[in-house]
What does this fold into?
Amino acid sequence: MDKLRYFLLVIFILEFIEPSLELELPLIPYSPGKLCFIIYGILGINKIGLNNFLRRYIYAFLIWLSFLLGSFFSVDIPWVQSLGIVIASFPYYISMTMLSFDYSVEKFQTLMISFFHIIFIYSVCYVFYNFYINDFNSYSILHILGLVDNRHEVGFKISIASVFLFIYHYNKSKYLIISILIISISSMLIIESRSNILIYLISIFIFLFTNKIFSNIYTFLIVVFVSSFSFIQLSSTFDSIENRFSFQDKQLASINDRIYAVEKFPENFYNNLLGKGPKDIRFTNKSGVKMTYHNQYFTILTAGGLISMFVLIRLIYNFLYKSTKLLYSISLSRFNNSLLYVLLNILLIFFTVEFLGFQWFLFFSLLIYFTKNSFE
It folds into this structure.
C-alpha cells in the first residue's frame, strides 16, 4: 500500500515542480496531481489508525473550519464562491496531516531527499534556461508577458531545496555546498526575488552559528564572499537586477505598501474577527488599490479569524520552544536536521509572501511533525 501511496505523491510533486503539468479534470475541481494527493492521504489513515490520525488532524481541521466559517462573512467576494473553494479543499487537510506521519518513515525520507534534489536541479535549470532564451531580459517583464512562472513560487522552491541540500551535504563536500550556494543565490538574483535571497542567507547563517561552524573564520569568509561576488557580478551585468535591488521610487513604493499593510492589519483583523474566507484576503492600500498582504500569517488570520490565530500561535509557539533544543541537538538525523531548517526557512519566508497551495500544506505538516514527534 505504501508503494502505491508514494507513487501517487510523486505525481503530485511533479505537478508542484512544473505547474504546466496541471490539467483540469471534468466535473471535479481537482487536477490529476491534486487528486493523487487526496488519495495518498485517504489511503494512509488505515495504516496510522483513526485515533492516532485524529490527534493530529484536529489542528488541520480547525484551520479548515475557520476558513469555512469566515467564508460566510466574505465582503468583496461572493460567499458562495469562497465556500465552494473551502469545501473542495477539505481532503487536502487529510493528506497534509498524513505527511506529518510519513516524515518519520525511512522509505519516505529517501523519497523526500530525492524530491529536494529534483526540485533544486529543475528549478535552477528553469531559471537559467528561460533567462538565456529570452535574451537575458528582466524576469519581472517576462512574468508580465506570461513567459515564466511567478518569481515567488520559483524562489520558494529554490530556497527550501537549497537549504535542505546545503545542510544535508555539509559534512560531505565543501565544494558541493559552495556550488549550491553560488547557484542558489545567482538563481534568486536572476528572478529578482529580494526576500528569498535575504531569508535564504539568514537560514544558512543560523545553521552555521548554531552548529558553531563560524568558529572557523574561513567558513564565514567563504559565505560572505560567495554571496557578495554573486550579487556584484550579476547586478553589474544586468540592469534589471541592479534596479530591482536598488532604492528607486518603484521599489520604495513597494516597501511602503508592505509597511502600510502591517499598520493596517490590526484594524482589518479587529473588524473581521471571524475571518472572511480564503478568497477575500486583500486590503486597500493608500492609493485605493486592492492588494495582498504579502504575509502568510496576515493572510491566514484574515481568512480564518480568531480560530486560525489560536491554532497558528499554539503550533508556532510549540515549534519555536522545541526548536531551541532541536537546533543544538546531536540526536537529530541528517534528514530531520535538514528538514528542521527547511521549516525555519519557510517560517521566515511567510513573513514576506503568501501561499494557499502546497507551500502552505508543506509548512503546516512540518509544524505538526516537529511539535508532535519526539526526537530524543
